[in-house]
Amino acid sequence: MTVALDKLKYEIKDPALATLGKQRIEWAGREMPVLRQIRDRFAQEKPFAGIRLVACCHVTTETAHLAIALKAGGADAVLIASNPLSTQDDVAASLVVDHGIPVFAIKGEDNATYNKHVQIALDHRPNIIIDDGSDVVATLIQERQNQIADLIGTTEETTTGIVRLQAMLKDGVLTFPAVNVNDADTKHFFDNRYGTGQSTLDGIVRATNILLAGKTVIVAGYGWCGKGTALRARGMGANVIVTEIDPIKAIEAVMDGFRVLPMAEAAPQGDIFITVTGNKHVIRSEHFDVMKDGAIVCNSGHFDIEIDLKSLKSKAAEVKNVRPFTEQYKLNSGKSVVVIGEGRLVNLAAAEGHPSAVMDMSFANQAMACEYLVKNKGKLAPGLHSIPVEVDQEIARLKLQAMGISVDTLTPEQVEYINSWTSGT
Questions:
Q1: What are the subcellular locations of this protein (predicted)?
Q2: In-domain check, residue 415
């Protein structure tokens, strides 16, 4: 495909990076058979013909396949980054040059540029918004009320974004349908657990080249992302301590074989700290004060608020880059604390994000959630909606089929039994 760049609006680092981006996008596609099948169907059925769509996502090789599938389905799509450090510039270039998709994303863009790109996305007057953290939806509600009438609905794939949508619903400002992609079983069981678990440690190792075996790793939060991170850290030989506020999740962590402590007690013991809570200032001033010299701190939650970097900077006599995406804060006390990826998503700031095999299911959910919104235009009530169970199961079926795995089916006798209340012991 040849794209006339002079006729396409975009803002990326360098179109010359497209060749490398195309190669990497093709490599990721080897492990995304579910989304490939959905793209092929979309190309035939054109479910998004006449639909203006905005996707605010991490601009990675996997996201590229989602964007390509949506365009194949007829969408008039614009892509922006959902995090200033999560863009892969070569991928952004290939989407522009090879696929003619308007992309506004540059790795390392400042907050002003990021916010400008959110405004550019809303200038597209979207009918569908794919959000990752709910920044676009929040800006629409706060600043562009007149455009809500154009909106069929939105989809959201992060825990952080769902928390924000729930707050919007509570405040009475979520006046349109939003599909909770994050809670689909084929999303959080796999993306959050296996994807975050592996890619978080990948980011830490790439940034520091540190040996995890024998280290004490503190995992803040034991949701699905925390479970995966703790599991993988233990698998690499680390001694894992979990911090939690939820007593049920804390018990689960204990039953899974992890030590559970308050952060105040864990802080002096940790060599590496990983936050995955979705909340603010999980690691604070008093925790920095008691950390070991050389402690490494990073975040794998969506926003860069989980680590109180402002207080850390106030304690620092010197801040210097010691490796790519790795800063050492030399404290007035003489100790040092190392921060990876500016406290942003470590798996995307310092690595490549989740493996494509798990994103295959996550983005299949996104694609089918968009189709669900379009097919049910005007029928869904305002508020949060779950992915239909049959869609979730179809994605799992397609994934198993692609992996060459078969499962049992119920016999007629079994179907009768589970649908009857009269049969007992």
A1: Cytoplasm
A2: no
Query: Crossing angle, helix 33-45 and helix 389-402, to 10 degrees?
Result: 120
pLDDT at 3 over 70: no
Contact 345, 85 (CB under 8 A): yes
Task: Please report which confidence band the pLDDT of residue 181 belongs to, taking 50, 70 and 90 as the band edges.
Answer: very high
Q: How confident is the model at residue 2 (pLDDT cuts 50, 70, 90)?
A: low
347 is in an annotated binding site: yes
Residue 106 lies in a domain: yes
Half-sphere exposure of 67 (CA within 13 A, CB side): 28
| Segments forming the whole domain that contains residue 85 | 5-183+354-402
For the residues 363-382, what does the mean pLDDT come to?
96
Q: 222: annotated binding-site residue?
A: yes
Single residue among 344, 377, 412 that ends a domain in this structure: 344
Number of domains the chain contains: 2
Is position 221 annotated in a ligand binding site? yes
User: Known binder of ligand: residue 143?
Assistant: no
The answer as to whether 413 is a domain residue is no
Q: Is 320 annotated as a binding residue?
A: no
Is 192 annotated as ligand-binding? yes
pTM of the predicted model, to two decimals?
0.89
Same domain for 339 and 285? yes
Establish whether 275 is an annotated binding residue. no
| Residue 22, marked binder | no
